[in-house]
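--- STAGE predict ---
source: upstream dedup step, 1 unique chain passed
mode: sequence only
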Amino acid sequence: MSLDGRPAQVPSKAASPVANPISRMVQIRYTVSQPVFAAFLAGGVAGAVSRTVVSPLERLKILFQIQSAGREEYKMSVGKGLAKMWRDEGWRGFMRGNGTNCIRIVPYSAVQFGSYNFYKRFAEPSPGADLSPVRRLLCGGAAGITSVTFTYPLDIVRTRLSIQSASFAALSEASRKRLPGMWGTLKIMYQTEGGFLALYRGIVPTVAGVAPYVGLNFMTYESVRKYFTPEGDKNPTAVRKLAAGAVSGAVAQTCTYPFDVLRRRFQINTMSGMGYQYKSIWDAITIIVSQEGVMGLYKGIVPNLLKVAPSMASSWLSFEMTRDFFLTMRDE
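--- STAGE serialize ---
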């Protein structure tokens, strides 16, 4: 009974917003359309698309990188290297490690783009204000460190999977016949190479290279994108976005490439038959330069530059298209 003596009205279940499927859908669409969340989802899509597009060149780059003096199996041109991969392993050789790479790159790219948009909120002089190049660089660097920390074990496993079936003399035929998968490789590393810390071997040179790389990538892309945007428009065309992504990737990769070589070497530092036994970053640099010359720090840069244009271009374009799709849900 109500206070005035009339029967109290009990709200029907149909009127409850919790039980209303339309209200739930509106809430989901609103959540997905939040800028940081939309960037997170779009980043995952962008990572999977870009890595699959350039998987053969990505693997060939790694095979070039891990060769020290005396290992000549892949001392050849990009075309001959791709042909050798095809002869030795068929089309599976082109995609070796790509499944793990996609499993890694989806959360990696999602965390990277999402955290960049999150950090931008704190770096803006005022809400919605444009960032200076230096602030973009710092936000990108912080996003790179965040994404690497979350997904590094999958990166080191991807490197192992990429080379364990390659025709290196140091790898025995028996070891190539029984190739463990992603979880098998993680388990073996954990049990035989030092426990949890083994899954983060090489993270120091990785962070040292990823932070400036991601920072330069975001800074260059947004600067070039702004330059390519016609006056009075909010967005450049898809072709101009592709061009901006290609330029940003090439600049960032060239400036930070030696750290990528160091990362790959440290990731197989204790791998049976392929280990280098470097004691520190400086020790690795000294040995590489003394045995392989300065260009040893740039091994694999040719296939890397060949892949970076389609990789970063497709990454940025798919990111913007997916993000804009989610953002429009709020208006709808």
